[in-house]
Amino acid sequence: MSILSEFKEFAVKGNVIDMAVGIIIGAAFGKIVSSFVGDIIMPPIGVLIGGVDFSDLAIVLKEATEGAEAVTLGYGKFIQTLIDFTIVAFAIFIAVKFINKLKRQEAPAPEVEPEPSKEEQLLTEIRDLLKEKK
């Protein structure tokens, strides 16, 4: 089997397609959640804590000179990223919890007994014929 045919077999399997769709939807969902955090959640939090924008917090390690920019340690961006992550993680937790609740509410499908195999059908016929002879 050539590498090309192996790759084709791998690429067209359902799991790979499902994974690709999941990644694409995940990226789109990530943008939605980022906008929710940045545009909806963080402004009220900023007002509550006195208008502090964490992303501007930094320690200047070396002042700017002619021809060189200042060297700063931007710890505020890190704090902002931690806050964003916490809110995103909580939003995903709530979404997964909601989805799981919906799944639990669905009635389980009734189990359908599989049809007997041909061997079982044949044995049943033989049994019935033997009962008739008695």
Number of strand segments: 2
User: Which secondary-structure class do the elements indicate?
Assistant: mainly alpha
| CATH second-level architecture | Orthogonal Bundle
Give the N-to-C terminal Cα separation: 60 Å
Main beta-sheet annotation: 2 strands, antiparallel
Question: How would you describe the oligomerization state of the chains in this entry?
Answer: single chain
Mean pLDDT: 81
Order of helices and strands: HHEEHH
Protein name: Large-conductance mechanosensitive channel
Organism: Methylotuvimicrobium alcaliphilum (strain DSM 19304 / NCIMB 14124 / VKM B-2133 / 20Z)
Family: Belongs to the MscL family.
Pfam family, one: MscL
Could you characterize the architecture of this molecule?
The chain has helices at residues 3-11, 14-48, 75-105, 118-133, and strands at residues 59-62, 71-73. It has 134 residues and is mainly α. The chain has a single domain (3-107), classed as Large-conductance mechanosensitive channel, MscL, domain 1 (Non-ribosomal Peptide Synthetase Peptidyl Carrier Protein, Chain A), CATH 1.10.1200. The chain has a two-stranded antiparallel ribbon. Strand 1 and strand 2 (71-73) form a beta hairpin. Helix 2 packs across helix 3. The radius of gyration is 31 Å and the shape is elongated. This is Large-conductance mechanosensitive channel. Channel that opens in response to stretch forces in the membrane lipid bilayer. May participate in the regulation of osmotic pressure changes within the cell. Pfam families: MscL.
